[in-house]
Amino acid sequence: MTEPSRDRSVEVLLPREKIARRVRELGAEIARDYRGRTPHLVGILKGAWVFMADLVRQLDLDVTVDFLGITSYGAGMHSSGEVKITKDIDVSIEGRDVLIVEDILDTGHTFKFLQEVLSVHQPRSLRLVTLLDKASRRVVPVHADYVGFEIPDVFVVGYGLDFNQKYRQLPDVRVLRSQDSV
Ligand code: PRP
Q1: pTM for the full model?
Q2: What is the CATH number of domain 15-158?
Q3: Where are the domains of the chain?
Q4: Distance between CA atoms of 175 and 79, rounded to whole angstroms?
Q5: pLDDT per residue over 82-129, tens digit each?
């Protein structure tokens, strides 16, 4: 079987070992901050699923988990700015310490939308952990409470992130140049 995705000449931005180290650090920091509480982790599909699976196993805490399906990008490389729910949360978040888990914070439209729709359900607290932060691209003034890596304005794939639904399975975060995406 050929592995075209792994053979592509796309440069590694964050190797898997570096991601694993940072996820361990984030897990320790979050566990310290939520000591004595049971945070409710809400992973934002689809991109956050790989990060969430690794992060949750680094939390020395009782946690509960849920997923919310959101899409903000069309089939191209740029955000449409339009956010849609594709799968709602399954259980009530009222009175809960909700920690949203994202793969990437980019323009901020998605997180702003999530703050608006989830606040209505009156969680006790609402925070965001994101693996990647493209702070230079921010359009809406939001910030994450926990950030794995701040990255430059390049199109990244792998470790859950896609281009046209491909590359999510790559173990490293890689930069996809437009000429690689044909
Ligand atoms: C990505 C990411 C965030 C959003 C961030 O999702 O998972 O949800 O974009 O961008 P923003 O800050 O500009 O709003 P995407 O729409 O690519 O969907 P996916 O997670 O299913 O790949």
Answers
A1: 0.91
A2: 3.40.50.2020
A3: 15-158
A4: 17
A5: 788 999 999 999 999 999 999 999 999 999 999 999 999 999 999 999
